[in-house]
Amino acid sequence: MGWSAQNNNLTIVRRSASHAVLDALRPIFSARRSANL
């Protein structure tokens, strides 16, 4: 049971980290897209 809980926490951390990266890259991509236009 301890392993499943640890694995679940790792999945949550990984998911939140990917969301943070996407949120950080979103303004860069939007700015680049407007610059291309």
Automatic annotation (TrEMBL):
<dbReference type="GO" id="GO:0016798">
    <property type="term" value="F:hydrolase activity, acting on glycosyl bonds"/>
</dbReference>
<protein>
    <submittedName>
        <fullName>Glycosidase</fullName>
    </submittedName>
</protein>
<keyword id="KW-0378">Hydrolase</keyword>
<keyword id="KW-0326">Glycosidase</keyword>
